[in-house]
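User: I've been going back and forth on whether these two constructs are worth ordering. Before I decide, could you fold them both?

Assistant: Sure. I'll take them in the order you sent them. The first construct and its structure tokens:
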Amino acid sequence: MGTKDYAAITGSINEGIKGLRDTGAVETLNQFTAMSKAAMTDGALDKKMKELIALSIGVATHCDGCIGFHTKALKRLGATDEEVSEALGVTVYMGGGPSLMYAADAWNAWQALKD
């Protein structure tokens, strides 16, 4: 089994989202975008910490798109290998073997998308 192409995965999802937006789900997608912006605004937790949490949830729920989008965001926010690794370690601790499988995928995505 090869490494997943997270750039292709997120690109394909973006195309699908555009299709949904173009065919009538505009208000739903606008509300989702607003919720995302509200949730990810700096507060007691900064944006990077929130993205680490989001990546962990993506791993725990086995969501390839979530892994791709949140690793890209972590790159933009200047996350380090150590921060991503520790967040993934907590995810494995809480989710066991299935989370370990997706944490390994998330690490590969991080390595591929961070540069």
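The second construct, handled the same way:
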Amino acid sequence: MSARWLNAKGIFQWRPEYFHLDQVTEFMADGAHVYLAYWNDAVVGTYTITWSDPLIWKELDSPDAGYIHRFAVHRDYEGQGLGGHLLHAAEEQIRQEGKTLVRLDCMADNARLNQYYREMGYAYIRRLDAADWSASLYEKR
């Protein structure tokens, strides 16, 4: 649902066809932790934590970091502070693993999401430009 909503706004960070159960199972087999947030028996948010991300972070990939991916809040619960609660939960889980850095990325042209991560205390590290997309990289100590 979040992928379709982003695509409708002209932001192609995620494609709906990239989200399927086999991919989630593969992430988990590779050591990723996948989380779902429930409220009144409905899934209202999700995120995945990985312990390495050389594809995006390249030479900055660090064993001292946990990487938040696929962070999303159901549109029906937007504006209720749920995103902040989920980010804080992910940060705490990463700290409990002994990591000192929390990292995430988003599409460079998604101005609102870039602003949100800065508001949540994340420092901008750099921009990554690929052939058909660009990402902003953020971290929090």
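Notes on the second construct follow. The two ends are 31 Å apart (CA to CA). Helices lie at 2-8, 21-29, 54-57, 82-96, 111-119.
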